[in-house]
Amino acid sequence: MKWRYLLFILCLSTYCNAQIVNVESSRMQSDTVGWLGSVGAAVSFSKNVDEIFQGNIEAHLQYKTSRNLGIWLILGNVGFLKINNTRVQSDGLLHLRYNKKVNDWLRWEFFGQFQNNVITQIDSRILLGTGPRFKLSNRNDFRLYVASLFMFEKETEFTSPKISYNDIRNSSYISFTWLPRDFLEMISTTYFQPRVNKLSDYRILNQLAFQIKATPHFSLSLKWNYLHDRFPAGTAPKTTYNFATGITYEL
Fold first, then answer.
1. In angstroms, rounded to a whole number, what is the distance separating the alpha carbons of residues 137 and 144?
2. Which of 108, 123, 142, 200 has the fewest CB atoms within 10 Å distance of its CB?
């Protein structure tokens, strides 16, 4: 197994736990066959009325097959929130995805996911999905992708009594990567996830990420996340957002 990146990010952020996973920001662009991987950690502390401490640990593996026809992607994440010395809340995620090459401009994807999140009142969310991903541009300085997948979603909420839903959703996204300079990279991804039988029940996620290389090994990272869930679980807010900045170390 070949580890290429070790990430440690010290975040200064407002609190947010996104319910949609931005897989695009986790894809590694490489011609190398075999394993790639990363591990990261983030912490933040704020005090107004309460003292709030937030931490997060994440890791992922990517495997490219020897014939370059498929890519496996595994994502894991564990986070927690501590308010004063009395309340602790947590969330976790495991995501598995397979990207099958059909031709130079078309990939077919399969994925599964398990998630729980106390903050957004999700006791468990299980996803199984599949669909096409299209490459619209693959220039050295600009890459553009769009996708339209369908997924089965089983969700159980933190309510008393607990409420469960079984739904079919579309999960469409558009993503681009722009490299205007050798030391600067920008990635933007926007997801739209409506229920197939009730289009007014939808989620929108936008993530904008910048990375500025300061030295051959160190970069400055800036990331913005925005989530709007038309019908969130329980009494969770419809709109959440997050801004984070930190330092990335590349081996």
1. 5
2. 200
| CB 225, CB 205: distance < 8 Å | yes
Phi/psi of residue 24, each to 5°?
Answer: -55, -40
Q: What is the C-alpha separation between 113 and 125, in angstroms, rounded?
A: 8
Rounded Cα–Cα distance for residues 145 and 184 (Å): 20
Confidence tier at 89 by pLDDT (50, 70, 90): low
Dist. CA 123–CA 158, nearest whole Å:
5
Domains in the chain, number: 1
CB atoms under 10 Å from CB of 169, counted, come to 22
d(CA 32, CA 6): 18
**Considering all CA atoms of the chain, what is the largest pairwise distance in Å, rounded to the nearest integer?**
57
What CATH number should be reported for the domain holding residue 50?
Answer: 2.40.160.40
* Tokens matching residue 37: 């991987």
Cross-strand bridge partners of residue 112: 96, 128
Enumerate the β-bridge partners of residue 54. Answer: 44, 81
Which pLDDT does position 15 carry in this prediction? Answer: 35
Q: Global pTM?
A: 0.74
Who has greater pLDDT, 108 or 11? 108
Yes or no: say if 52 and 19 are a contact pair by the CB < 8 Å rule. Answer: no
58 near 209, Cβ under 8 Å?
no
**Encoded tokens for 249:** 């170390």
Residue 131, phi-psi category: left (phi > 0), alpha (psi -120 to 50), beta (remainder): left
